[in-house]
Amino acid sequence: MRKLMGKTGKGKVHGITVKRSFQVPLALLFEVITKPEHMQHWKGPRGFVMTIVSEDVRPGGKVHYSQSSPEGQIMWSLLEYVEIVPNEKFVYTNAFSDEEGNTLRAPFSQMWPLRILNTLTFREDGDMTELTMHGKAFEATKAEIQFFESFKENVKVGFSGTFELLDEYLAKLQE
């Protein structure tokens, strides 16, 4: 992979960090977050249906999927596994794509970075597991990084909703 751009001028590290604790064993949370057969039950906005087209769960492997809105709009995405350290760390990139899995610009802006690098770390604390997610523009121009940075609060709100769905799915698995 090409060198990561991680600075936004004046030495500031860019990106978005979200932390959330879940009342589940670490191994269960790690599995549910990293395995596509679980992702389709919680990943994305409420009401959307995820369909996995292909999956290769290993570093260098990819998951190609679509998400359909209740109104029938379809968005395609590609997730590429970078690093998997069981029960500790999960690193992947995600991007918008077409039906064939070719990376595309985001449908909402030509300034959104082509790929986002996400690093998830897991820490068990009693009967809770803390998830820390840090996402940043990957192999992006300075303008794309600045645009991504301007959306920090919107992205955090989006992940709040996704984590609610994850909480609900985890509760069903433990019934």
What does this structure look like?
It is a single chain. The protein is an alpha+beta fold and 175 residues long. It has helices at 26-34, 36-39, 142-150, 152-173, and strands spanning 16-22, 49-55, 62-68, 74-85, 89-97, 103-104, 115-125, 128-138. The protein is built from four helices and eight strands, in the order βααβββββββαα. Strands 1, 2, 3, 4, 5, 6, 7 and 8 form an eight-stranded antiparallel beta sheet that branches. The longest helix is centred in the C-terminal third of the chain and has 22 residues, at 152-173. The protein is globular, with a radius of gyration of 16 Å.
Q: Which SSEs are present, and which pair or pack?
A:
Layout: E1 16-22, H1 26-34, H2 36-39, E2 49-55, E3 62-68, E4 74-85, E5 89-97, E6 103-104, E7 115-125, E8 128-138, H3 142-150, H4 152-173
Antiparallel strand pairs: 1-8, 2-3, 3-4, 4-5, 5-6, 5-7, 7-8
The total count of helices amounts to 4
Main beta-sheet strand count, sense and barrel state:
8 strands, antiparallel
Number of strands: 8
What's the gyration radius in Å? 16 Å
How are helices and strands ordered from N to C? Answer: EHHEEEEEEEHH
Which consecutive residue ranges, at least 5 long each, have pLDDT under 50? 1-11
Question: What would the principal axes of the Cα set say about the shape?
Answer: globular
Strand percentage: 35-45%
Percent helix, as a range, is: 25-40%
**What structural class should be given to the helix and strand makeup?**
alpha+beta
Distance between the termini: 42 Å
User: On the 0-100 scale, what is the average pLDDT?
Assistant: 90
